[in-house]
Amino acid sequence: MIDYNIRLQIPEVEILPLLEMQNQQKKRLVSDPLSAVKLPFSGSFAGNAQLIFPTESAAMLVSVLTGEDVESPDLDSLKISTLSEVGNILLNGVMGSISNILEQQLDYAIPCYEEEDIDHILSFKMGYNEAHVLLAQTHFDIEELQVKGDIVLFFDVNSFQLLLNAIAAVD
């Protein structure tokens, strides 16, 4: 998409109860508000994949992708569409890899962009209160720029057990 080398590192993957993850991320993601792209998925597993950025990192990424100055008033008008497309590509890639490796079918909804505080971004209304979370903390490196972001995969309780069974079957 751009003329820079982009490296995606996933240094740590954890499986946590949702409430524990929320408390952990509140301590780590102190930026307010945050930018997030959410991609609901269903099929063999149901849940929600999210790409979450501190707003400064989101603005830097959009600036690099569009050529707009970070201070440009036009940057806000580009942010939603640019980050939605980046999130769509990245989250579909992650979820597609998971479904291919585990040989499971997944369907995706249209990604949506939100810029909210962490409590809103990590809150759920569709039965995720008892969910487990697969949390992958990742960093994007674009040449000399470092854009921070997290990929968070949420699975409902029934889907989470199916995921663990599918992982065990691959081993």
Structure write-up:
The structure is a single chain. The protein has 171 residues and is an alpha+beta fold. It has five helices and seven strands. The protein has helices at residues 18-28, 55-66, 75-102, 118-121, 157-170; strands at residues 6-17, 34-43, 47-54, 106-108, 112-116, 132-142, 145-155. Strands 1, 2, 3, 4, 5, 6 and 7 form a seven-stranded antiparallel β-sheet that branches. The longest helix is centred in the middle third of the chain and has 28 residues, at 75-102. It is globular.
Inertia-based shape: globular
Summed over residues and divided by their number, the pLDDT gives a mean of 79
* DSSP helix fraction: 40-55%
Structural class comes to alpha+beta
Q: Write the H/E string, N to C.
A: EHEEHHEEHEEH
Radius of gyration from the alpha-carbon trace, in angstroms: 16 Å
Number of strands: 7
Strand-residue fraction? Answer: 35-45%
Number of helices: 5
Report how far the terminal alpha carbons are from each other. 35 Å
| Largest sheet report | 7 strands, antiparallel
| Low-confidence residue ranges | none
Features:
171 residues, 35% strand, 5 helices, single chain, alpha+beta, 7-stranded antiparallel beta sheet, globular
Quick summary of this structure?
The protein is α+β, with helices and mostly antiparallel strands.
Task: Break the fold down into its secondary structure elements and pairings.
Elements: E1 6-17, H1 18-28, E2 34-43, E3 47-54, H2 55-66, H3 75-102, E4 106-108, E5 112-116, H4 118-121, E6 132-142, E7 145-155, H5 157-170
Antiparallel strand pairs: 1-6, 2-3, 2-4, 2-5, 3-7, 6-7
